[in-house]
Amino acid sequence: MFLTHLECSACGRQHDWSRLQNLCAACQKPLFAIVDLAAVSRTVKRETLAAREKSLWRYREVLPLTDGVEPVSLGEGGTPLLRAQKFGGDVDLWVKDESLNPTQSFKARGMSVAVSMAKYLGAEKLAVPSAGNAGGALAAYAARAGLDAHIFMPRDTPRANIIECRELGAHVTLIDGLITDCAAEIARRKEEEGWFDMSTLKEPYRVEGKKTLGYELVEQLGWQLPDVILYPTGGGTGLIGMWKAFTEMESLGWISKKRPRMFAVQATGCSPIVRAFEAGEKTAAEFRNAHTIASGLRVPKAIGDFLILKLLHQSNGGAVAVDDEEMIRTMREVGSKEGLFVCPEAAACFAALKLLQRPGKIAPGERVVIFNTGAGIKYLDCYESQ
CB–CB of 342/372 below 8 Å? Predict the structure, then answer.
């Protein structure tokens, strides 16, 4: 294992990785796992990865789990990168289909690594607020690890997600409110209940699982980066994780300094990052009365907002909002043209592509990657009134 310490993403304070940690003790901002990349580069070369298992754990040297410890795994990672032949028009469009992960979403990546570390460091009860897919992933990986899972979800979370969590043995509590209200309930009770908080970016290892999106994408593209990445953004862990991965891969000598233009895609009914980006702010104010059918985008306040906004600016990217009706229409268009039943969060990215093509923010011939973060089948509630 090459993990050396945890470091605050805001103030830089170092923390001990060998005990359970949530936020920075000094400023209450997210912690990042820091890997000795010089040592990694002497141990593994990018060319040797192809012979390894088709799993995110093929990148074990840059992941935090101690050598010899079996990860809590359900076969996550190794998802296909598919060429979109009909939707993209004059751009070179690709879709990274994360719906083929265990529990049918990209959340499996983060939970595999985070639950592995939580179990190794002695946690027995795990808790998470979830708009849907994160809850299902925690329920599955906690069950696999033999740990208790306590999941707090808004009462109007898609039914499929609620049933999934319950049938996987988790303790599910439905809250009248949003994911922020669920998080507040966990914060109020976790000390008394003995829960370890697994919330997005409130522990250091879910982002480590998500960074494998970046490693895997670049490897699949022949160690080249695309021109543009469109990513559905609620808590933003995927964007933050990929940016961390690109920085690490450059340090390893696996890629050049080039970076893709990163675009955060949100719903018009919950677009705190879009508002903040357009206003030139470094953090995003809480989005009041948030509403959208894309439950994964209904995050009115992201703890990693400052990290998301920073990387959008550094990459010369941006932020785009799409309304719910356009998401539903685009889901059907993508399905009929490409044979992919994408989640509404991903449909927002396909719609955003068209919005960005019109003013020339994405040019003909550019290579664009959209992430389908979950399976459309989990969102059947969206079609009941359509």
Answer: yes
Q: What is residue 383's predicted lDDT score, i.e. its pLDDT?
A: 76
157 SS3 class: coil
Domain boundaries, the chain: 81-106+205-383, 107-197
Confidence of residue 386 (pLDDT cuts 50, 70, 90): low
Rounded to whole angstroms, the Cα distance separating 229 from 243 reads 11
| In the predicted structure, residue 385 carries a pLDDT above the cut 60 | no
**Fold identical between 81-106+205-383 and 107-197?**
yes
Please give the sequence-ordered ranges of beta strands (E in DSSP) within 148-268, or none if there are none: 148-154, 171-175, 196-197, 228-232, 261-267
Distances (CA, A) of 191 to 22, 125, 187, 197, 206: 13, 11, 8, 10, 21
Tens digit of each residue's pLDDT (9 = 90 or more) over 373-382? 999 999 998 8
d(Cα 213, Cα 207) in Å, to the nearest integer? 10
Question: What is the topology classification, in CATH, of domain 107-197?
Answer: Rossmann fold (3.40.50)
Task: Decide: pTM greater than 0.85.
Answer: yes
- CATH number for the region 81-106+205-383 comes to 3.40.50.1100
